[in-house]
Design a protein that fits this description.
Length: 707
């Protein structure tokens, strides 16, 4: 192992720009830590997506779809049209191994590590900047990043009053309505309030894959002087989506690409006679943050944050011919059961960050966070179909509770020495995670066993940057660990292990006549929890420890303005070579087959995006963006029938702005998949492949009126 690590210490990464013009839409003097902007200058692989880019394309689709053309990113959608349950992978790594933050506060679910974008719909409309870090990156608060992180900064304080109304309509009866408004500074410039309300509805590309999404955001500022600022941010989301996470087999896809088996009701010969109309996922989540930002002097700044995330919801389903005794009902009969399975959780804590910029030759960063999670899991019987068994609606048939406490702290330093910068970073994380039955909620019918784990991880990182005129080159190394999820533990409570990653990155960046970056990476894993290709009964991917494995590759990006800045050419390219080094396949009969070196599932070798922006006149922008993803296996044992075909997509966007005195009317047309490609970018494997087809050619038109 040490030899392999040493041989790969020459590999690394560069900071890549998103190849879109950088333009801030809001005038603000908000007191902020350097956060996003500072990370983009450290020796890590990062890519910043601006407010303008997000808003131009933000016609209702979720953030993973808006980020799909970023470097090494592959995005997918259960419903096929980018609204509802969506996800993204970076370097082939599932988003459950990525770290997501809002203004430095962790967003990942504490138990699944998942990022459920559907729970905060239209969050792009509240984003000032989004920074994607690939690889280990730098330390932050929350779970460790094993493939990347998404750091979202919400809208900064806007000093001038504004308001805009937005409406959009498109394929699959998709609609979006939105209102954004702000008071500007008032009361001697000490107070400021911004708000947003959004509603998104779609039928989905897949049958019955509908989504009804509502979200609201509030930012309230109080600034008693130019060195102190208090802010309250509240982000609310409510979603109801028809389940579309089951996928379809190959023959069904040939016959009917939009088929959705969810909610099917069968006769005695297993012929579908109807579909249950409320086979839905329902969830409400609210993020409440309070910030105290302080500028102590020209060098030192700090931010103290208190946060509370409240989530509660359920998915409802029709279970046919269910054994009633499994539901704690006094009967050995079978009947059709309508059940709900609930999540009822609280996540709260405090985060403190301190930084010193230009302290002699040093930039210093410190942070600490203490977070606690309470997760309730229980199920209820809502109705019995054609049964005489007596029961009360809402009858609970299992109940357990999880508690997770995490303390993390980090210190970073960047030392400037002539043309060199030396970077060091160390993080310590301690986690206590246990789960047990509650209120006598033991039910062997549910796949749950009590557990109690404690971990302490030390995660060091280091790098060196050499700066040249309009260019820089750097090398970095990072070590990080990550605890298993609830699903990982329940699948193998006695043997599951935390995973360890050594990440080496080498990069070069220039912003001379051509904006160009290249980076090489090598990520060596011990006990990596990789996707098996299977999913559980609620569509979550199943993972397993695989011993030694690695991910390696090269990533490039470029952008260039030509023809008197009327045309912007841009693109990125990623080549990924990733392997399990000693993969062992556990067969259904309990035997183990040594497969040796195999390709890691869901890791295409080539992911590339390229296109151009054209500005015929000042008010008009035309954008064409292409995306190519090569073939990829959906299993780690390289099943011949588990290979997804490559695909090439092209999207078109036109935006024109009319100006009326002080008012603006912006019209947008977005056409996705303009060549009507029939493609699949996600699947799972259960005795054969099950696919998630994506939409062919589809469009959205939108209008935004600002005043």
């Amino acid at each position: 192992m040490l030899k392999r690590i040493f041989l790969c210490s020459i590999l690394g990464a560069s900071t890549l720009g998103f190849a879109q013009e950088v333009e801030e839409l809001m005038e603000s003097d908000t007191i902020q830590l350097s956060a996003v902007h500072a990370m983009a200058e450290l020796p890590i692989t990062s890519e910043k997506i601006t407010n303008r880019t997000l808003r131009e394309k933000g016609l209702g689709q979720d953030l993973p779809i808006l980020l799909k053309n970023a470097t090494s990113v592959v995005s997918t959608s259960d419903a096929g049209n980018g609204i509802g349950y969506t996800s993204m992978r970076v370097r082939g790594i599932d988003q459950n191994q990525m770290n997501m933050t809002f203004n430095g506060v962790p967003v990942n679910d504490s138990e699944s590590h998942g990022i459920f974008w559907v729970n905060f719909p239209d969050v792009a409309s509240s984003a000032q900047d989004v920074l994607i870090q690939r690889g280990v990156g730098t330390s932050s608060n929350g779970a460790a990043a094993f493939g990347g992180s998404v750091n979202l900064e919400t809208n900064a304080r806007n000093r001038k009053p504004y308001a805009d109304l937005e409406a959009a309509y498109g394929s699959f009866n998709t609609m979006k309505y939105g209102l954004n408004a702000g008071t500007g500074d008032f009361a001697e410039n000490k107070f400021n309030v911004d708000t947003r309300v959004s509603y998104i509805q779609t039928d989905g590309y897949i049958d019955r894959a509908s989504s009804d999404l509502f979200s609201a955001a509030l930012n309230a500022y109080y600034r008693p002087n130019n060195k102190t600022e208090f802010q309250v941010m509240n982000l609310f989301g409510a979603q109801k989506t028809y389940q579309a996470w089951y996928g379809i087999d190959g023959q069904t896809m040939e016959d009917d690409r939009t088929h959705n088996p969810a909610g099917a009701i069968y006769d005695e010969n297993w012929n579908v006679v109807d579909y249950y109309d409320n086979q839905t996922d329902n969830y409400v989540q609210n993020h409440l943050h309070t910030y105290w930002r302080q500028k102590w002097n020209d060098t030192w700044r700090s931010t103290a944050t208190l946060h509370w995330t409240r989530g509660k919801g359920y998915y409802e389903e029709y279970k046919q011919d269910a054994t009633l005794s499994n539901y704690w009902l006094a009967s050995d009969d079978e009947a059709d059961v309508i059940r709900r399975q609930y999540l009822d959780n609280h996540f709260f804590g405090g985060v403190f960050n301190l930084e010193a910029k230009n302290l002699n030759d040093f930039d210093l960063y410190f942070g600490a966070a203490l977070n606690h999670y309470i997760g309730g899991h229980y199920g209820t019987v809502e109705d019995l179909v054609d049964s005489d068994v007596n029961f009360a609606a809402g009858h609970r048939y299992y109940e357990n509770e999880s508690l997770k406490t995490e303390f993390s702290s980090y210190a970073k330093a960047n030392y400037k020495m002539d043309n060199f910068e030396l970077f060091g970073d160390v993080q310590i994380r301690t986690i206590n995670y246990d789960a047990d039955y509650k209120n006598g909620g033991d039910n062997s019918f549910k796949d749950f066993v009590p557990y109690d784990f404690s971990w302490t991880f030390v995660n060091p990182k280091a790098g060196i940057t050499y700066r040249m005129p309009q260019s820089r080159m750097y090398l970095s190394y990072g070590l990080t660990h990550r605890e298993p999820t609830r699903s990982d533990i329940l699948a193998n409570v006695d043997k599951v292990k935390p995973e360890t990653l050594h990440d080496f990155e080498l990069g070069f960046r220039t912003q001379n006549w051509l904006n160009f970056g290249v980076n090489v990476f090598y990520m060596y894993y011990l006990d990596q929890l990789v996707l098996t290709g299977q999913i559980d009964d609620v569509g979550n991917p199943v993972r397993e420890n695989v011993g030694e494995s690695f991910r390696s590759g090269i990533e490039l990006d470029f952008s260039k303005r030509v023809l008197q800045n009327k045309v912007n050419l841009f693109g990125n390219f990623a080549y990924n070579h990733s392997r399990n080094l000693d993969y062992q396949l556990l067969k259904d009969d309990g035997t183990i087959v040594d497969m040796g070196s195999t390709k890691i599932a869901y890791t295409p070798e080539i992911v590339t995006s390229f296109g151009l922006d054209v500005y015929p006149v000042e008010a008009l922008k035309l954008n064409l963006t292409n995306k190519y993803v090569s073939e990829q296996f959906i299993t780690n044992f390289e099943a011949e029938d588990g290979l997804l075909d490559s695909y090439f997509l092209a999207d078109f966007l036109a935006s024109y702005t009319f100006k009326f005195n002080k008012h603006d009317l912006n019209l947008r047309l977005m056409v996705n998949n303009i060549f009507d490609k029939l493609y699949v970018n996600n699947a799972y494997y259960y005795e054969g492949p099950y696919y998630f087809p994506q939409a062919g050619r589809n469009f959205m038109i939108g209008a935004k009126f600002g005043f």
